[in-house]
Amino acid sequence: MHIPDGYLSPSTCATLYLCAASGWYVALKRIKQLLATRAIPLISVFAAFSFVVMMFNVPLPGGTTGHAVGVGIAAIVLGPWGSTLAISIAIAIQALFFGDGGITTLGANCFNMAIVGSFTAYAVYRMVAAKSNLNSRQRVLAAAAAGYVAINVSALVTAIELGIQPVLFHDASGTPLYAPYPLHVAIPAMMIGHLTFAGLAEAVISAGMVSYLQRADLGLLRGVSGLRQTPALLIGSANAERSPARLWWAVALLMLFTPLGILAAGTAWGEWSSAELTNPHTREQIGAASGNHALPSSVPVGIQKLSRLWTAPFPGYAPRFVKSPVFGYLLSAMFGVGFFALASLLMRIAARNRPARNLGP
Amino acid sequence: MSQHSFIESTLRGFARALSKALQSEHAATLPGLLQQLDPRVRVIGIFALVVSVILCRRIEAIAAIFLIAIALAVASRVSLVSLAKRVWLVVLGFSGVIAMPALFLTPGEPLFTAPALHLSISVQGMRTAAMLVLRAETAATLTTVLVLSTSWTHILKALRSLHLPAEIVTMLAMTHRYVFLLIETANQMFESRQSRTVGILSGSEQRKTAARTAGVLLSKSIELSHEVYLAMLSRGFRGEIRLLTDFRLRPRDYVGLTAFVFTSCLAAWIGR
Questions:
Q1: Closest CA to B127 of B119, B135, B116
Q2: A218 shares its domain with A269
Q3: Does A355 have pLDDT greater than 60?
Q4: I need a surface site. Which of A15, A163, B31, B216 has the fewest CB within 10 A?
Q5: Alpha helix locations (H) across A290-359?
Q6: Beta-bridge partner residues of A66
Q7: Same domain, A162 and A76
């Protein structure tokens, strides 16, 4: 996922350096507030640990091996801000000392893996783990989910950055100047490898380490456990007192913003329905979005057949009986979030039913 | 495939990293062109050249910077063979694989068509693939020449004198120091596990071994950070960081800096 120099335009690099620098600034401030003089040795040694873990070959089901970034376990032990700094320092050492990864893309790599990865891992861990016991199986599942989702969200952000390059930066003859693949190629190409190998490697190492720490060094899991009664050993009490309620508020806020989708003009590339492929107006839009390639005169037989297989309950993000598109979007968002909340609840119940492990002496 | 392949490949990775680090430290002490310039000039100069590489929109200009990078490597006594092994082949393997489909996927006027396969290579596809590979090769060569010609402490001092926050510079320095200690620790843990392994480890057992080793390494790292903190306190550390940045620019440094900046601007202007 490390983007080398030359794949991103100067303006993209500068923007992402700015985003990463803002993250580093806030992270440094937060960590110094929480840890005072302890911050420097703890983050430095943890960054060295992350660097070494990135070199581990993690055996995967099927006989292959993959490399983990370590962002899942870093967010679980240090919290999102500490993890942001530690992973950024490890990526910087890779680029500046070992020459692995770009210098101009250092901001982008830190933004994607250290910032986006850490916060995603933290949010998923806190949501799935909820208030379960530190030694519960639910926390192991939460760690696996945190590592897996974090790597995939980071990969998606990376793919978007690469995928917008040919649209924004090309010469007069249409030759892409940087990463050459548009979003509809970059996203699947990047995600296939991460949804399988890289995501799995991160899930294996995060879950395996949490399972190990539950038996050997439980104190390290207290920092961001979210349990009120457990003192935070590593990053003070501020994080330990925080409940997942904030995350739910953030989700609610994002749901309120879903009707913004109505503002998007045209059709989503590659998501055309049979009706859109026959309508002359939308055919014109599809042609313009596809580099003016000629469209087939009729709907391809495969699309026509397969489109009848499944009719979505909320076609176009609105049930048929809802006339207002804004209300339709809100309803769809509530349905989607509710579905995932239910899935999370079922996972929690399933994990609770399993016996807790013995902690040993 | 050997049943301990994941342990062996991890050990090989550690050995490669240590060998790279030793190679850098050795090359930095040789009396080459870059080594004789102030580290700040090296860092600014190479960064300016890398930026000009990504600013260039013409392949000829990028090729010219690539030649300059090779000339800099030769003048700085960086072995071209090690550069080829460490950078050119690796980048070609990675970027080449990524760039290959662009030959066929980039729309444009056809340059070559294979009728049997219904595939055609476009002129635009050829240019974008060549540009991607050459850009990545040039930038990676420049970065590696800097890494090989400058010791890590000098890079850090240069970054500090360029106003990178002292905390970040200290963290980079400490992380670098403890990376080698932790590599050595992990190396020993894997070696001792391997020497006690008889028979074939199942996939699940292999995953547990990797996770356990990482877990123990994490516990050791946290212990280490406490010890380092206590050692820092014993030396009177109160959270204030003072770093020595005693570089002084000499006339040849000014000449070097002017040459770097002029070349970078010229390349960016020609390649615009």
A1: B135
A2: no
A3: no
A4: B31
A5: 301-307, 325-352
A6: A58
A7: yes
Tokens (6 digits) for B207: 């995953």
Classify B120 as helix, strand or coil.
strand
Quick one: closest CA in A to B227, which residue? Answer: A41
pLDDT tens digit sequence for B67-96: 999 999 999 988 898 889 888 998 888 888
Environment class of B110 (CB within 10 Å of its CB; exposed 0-12, middle 13-18, buried 19+): exposed
Q: Which of A76, A83, A96, A220 to mutate against chain B (most B CBs within 10 Å)? A: A96
Residues of B in contact with A216 (CB under 8 A): 215-216, 219
- What is d(CA A270, CA A291) in angstroms, rounded to the nearest whole number? 13
Residue A201 three-state SS: helix
String of DSSP letters for A326-345: HHHHHHHHHHHHHHHHHHHH
Residues A286 and A267 sit within 8 Å (Cβ to Cβ): yes
State whether the Cα torsion A132-A240-A156-A151 is positive or negative: negative
A114, A148: one domain = yes
Q: Is residue A361 part of a domain?
A: no
Looking at the domain assignment, is residue A117 inside a domain? yes
Residue in chain B closest to A174 (alpha carbons) equals B124
CB contact under 8 A, B211 and A209: yes
The answer to whether the Cβ–Cβ distance between A176 and B221 falls below 8 Å is no
The string of DSSP letters for B150-173 reads S-HHHHHHHHHHTT--HHHHHHHH
Confidence band (pLDDT; 50, 70, 90) for A156? very high
CATH number for the domain spanning A89: value is 1.10.1760.20
Alpha-carbon distance B122 to nearest alpha carbon in chain A (angstroms): 10
Cα separation, A49 vs B198, in Å, equals: 29
Whether residues A21 and A53 fall in one domain: yes
Interface pTM, i.e. ipTM:
0.85
Residue A336's CB is within 10 A of a number of other CB atoms, namely 14
∠ CA A64-A69-A74, nearest 5°, is: 135
Supply the pTM of this predicted model: 0.75
A227 three-class SS:
coil
* Alpha-carbon distance values, B75 to B49, B64, B69, B252 (Å): 17, 16, 10, 15
Spatial CA neighbour of A291 closest among B53, B237, B105, B251: B105
Question: Encoding tokens for residue A347?
Answer: 């996972």
